[in-house]
Design a protein that fits this description.
Layout: E1 16-18, E2 24-26, H1 30-49, H2 54-74, H3 94-108, E3 118-119, H4 124-149, H5 154-174, E4 182-183
Antiparallel strand pairs: 1-2, 3-4
Length: about 190
């Protein structure tokens, strides 16, 4: 259980932070940028939830929890040393990826195929979901960059890749199952 009885520690005043394994690194380290952007994604999901109800809100709540799992996974390097931690280390799983895929498939079945690119907008919920999509794509890019330099759980990168697709399809659902999508008209303002 997490107990936070003191919010500031002053240990980061010199520009370093602790990873999940206790190592101290610069606050601008690639790993910190990756999980920090996952946290930013989670904040955008919180904003989207202000406009969501029912099943959409339930799915977004699950995603928010997954994003904390993902942050916990990314903040702990040295996967090969997980057994030495003395407690179960939280890692993303392929079942979380599969859940997103199943939900994407269900949403895809409800919307007509696209004949143009979609501009971010339409309903308030759709606009927020597009913001979630773009921030999650940035988190994915940083995680993929991190994976090129250090070991990263493959399920973490897969999850982020599916997540942006989930947000895209969810934005279409939020736009009256795609009927209220704002479509790009190439060269419309020349």
């Amino acid at each position: 259980m997490v107990v936070l009885n003191k919010i500031y520690t002053k240990t980061g005043d010199a520009g370093q932070t602790a990873l999940g394994n206790g190592d101290r690194v610069a606050k601008h380290a690639l790993r910190v940028n990756a999980y920090g952007t996952v946290d930013e994604t989670n904040a955008t999901v919180g904003m989207a939830r202000l406009h969501a109800t029912g099943e959409m809100d339930s799915h977004l709540a699950m995603i928010q929890n997954d994003l904390f799992d993902l942050g916990a996974d990314l903040c702990r390097p040295d996967m090969e040393k997980d057994g030495e931690a003395g407690y179960p280390v939280l890692r993303m799983s392929d079942t979380q990826v599969a859940r997103l895929e199943s939900q994407i498939d269900a949403m895809t079945a409800k919307v007509a195929p696209l004949r143009s690119f979609v501009l971010p907008g339409g309903s308030a919920l759709a606009a927020h979901l597009h913001l979630c999509r773009t921030v999650s794509r940035r988190a994915e890019r940083l995680t993929v960059e991190l994976a090129g330099a250090e070991a990263v759980n493959p399920a973490a990168a897969k999850y982020l890749n599916r997540l942006s697709d989930w947000f895209f399809q969810a934005s279409r659902i939020a736009n009256d199952d795609g009927r209220a999508d704002v479509l790009w008209i190439p060269g419309a303002n020349r």
